[in-house]
Amino acid sequence: MEKTCIDALPLTMNSSEKQETVCIFGTGDFGRSLGLKMLQCGYSVVFGSRNPQKTTLLPSGAEVLSYSEAAKKSGIIIIAIHREHYDFLTELTEVLNGKILVDISNNLKINQYPESNAEYLAHLVPGAHVVKAFNTISAWALQSGALDASRQVFVCGNDSKAKQRVMDIVRNLGLTPMDQGSLMAAKEIEKYPLQLFPMWRFPFYLSAVLCVFLFFYCVIRDVIYPYVYEKKDNTFRMAISIPNRIFPITALTLLALVYLPGVIAAILQLYRGTKYRRFPDWLDHWMLCRKQLGLVALGFAFLHVLYTLVIPIRYYVRWRLGNLTVTQVNLFLYIFFCS
Ligand SMILES: NC(=O)C1=CN([C@@H]2O[C@H](COP(=O)(O)OP(=O)(O)OC[C@H]3O[C@@H](n4cnc5c(N)ncnc54)[C@H](OP(=O)(O)O)[C@@H]3O)[C@@H](O)[C@H]2O)C=CC1
Ligand SMILES: [Fe+3]
User: Where are the transmembrane segments (predicted)?
Assistant: First the structure.
């Protein structure tokens, strides 16, 4: 299981560090957004580009040089380039020696490459201290301010001093660094942007399968069976009664699944005679999504409450309609016989 820790904010801001020069390689979307944010926060920014003369839309106040010239200007270089184009960095190994390289890249697919992008960068430029950061922050979020986006920046790296310097920059930009440990954690960090609702998938699929199964079971039992054997039309039940039976069953089943892994884990620990051994992956994953399972169960229970409240209202409306018909018939008979 991954370990996270929130670093305490420094009590005093080191003003000399705010004047630090930071180099950004790449003048694309992300490089420009990060550069602008850094300038706003008091850093001086030097961009490295293939075509320093032709670059447009760069934040004013930033300098643009060739990659090798820009690298000479700062000890920290943020690589705002896609991994596929990292090759040219091998030509700069000399100038990048001993510098901090911040890898911010993401991939299009999980496990697209055998090693993480950050580890690949460290392999290309062995003399540099590679730190992974910023990959979960989008260029758009940087521009629109951190308020409406995630403020967490996951940071990892093998050199603790380099990591601290990057975390200081993160803090100065108004974001929250989360130390994730060594560069080995980069693979995990690179997965975050590609995981949509990571722990919710299993509970959603499970509840969908349960609902569909129970729905067909109830339709066969309450609609098809009476129709075939008694010629009774019960299709109206499919709207309220059958869903209202499915919701509590699903809620209770999911609730049972919230408690079950804890029991299995306890039995496993008793059987193994120790609690210091890793659980199997399936159990680990199951334990981790208990909160989500519980919340989905709560959602179904809430639907059950709503539907249960709807049923008396339906009876009341039916009673009102029935009552109205009786009144009208009485009125008709009265008029008919009295005239
Ligand atoms: N956009 C986003 O919201 C986020 C992006 N990222 C990561 O940031 C990195 C950059 O993304 P983004 O700015 O969107 O990408 P862009 O395509 O907009 O920019 C990439 C830049 O890389 C430079 N580059 C260097 N070598 C090459 C080459 N051979 N071919 C093409 N470009 C080259 C170019 O700068 P120049 O022309 O000056 O040399 C180019 O502008 C990626 O790794 C991405 O995964 C991470 C989080 C969010
Ligand atoms: Fe009930």
Answer: 204-229, 249-271, 292-313
Q: Are 121 and 145 in contact (CB under 8 A)?
A: no
Q: Count the Cβ atoms, other than its own, within 10 Å of residue 164.
A: 15
Q: What is the DSSP letter of 8?
A: P
The answer for 31, left when phi > 0, alpha when psi is -120 to 50, beta otherwise, is alpha
**Cβ–Cβ under 8 Å, residues 71 and 99:** yes
Strand order in the sheet with 5-6: 5-6, 176-179, 152-157, 129-132, 100-103, 76-79, 21-25, 44-49, 63-66
For 79, phi then psi, to 5°, come to: -95, 95
Distance from C-alpha of 55 to C-alpha of 62, rounded to nearest angstrom: 12
pLDDT, tens only, 184-207: 999 999 988 877 677 888 899 999
The total of other beta-carbon atoms located within 10 Å of residue 224's CB is 13
ipTM: 0.95
54-74 pLDDT, tens digit each: 877 788 889 999 999 999 999
pTM: predicted TM-score of the whole model, two decimal places: 0.66
All domains in the chain, ordered by first residue: 21-194 (3.40.50.720), 200-338 (no CATH)
CB atoms within 10 A of CB 132: 32
- Which residues form ligand 1's pocket by a CB distance below 6 Å? 26-31, 49-51, 55, 80-82, 85, 104-106, 135, 138-139
How large a percentage of the chain has pLDDT more than 70? 92
Distance 26 CA to ligand 1 centre (A): 6
Identify the CA nearest to 242 among candidates 260, 229, 267, 224: 224
Q: Which pair of tokens denotes residue 241?
A: 């009664």
Distance from residue 267's CA to the centre of ligand 2 (Å) = 32
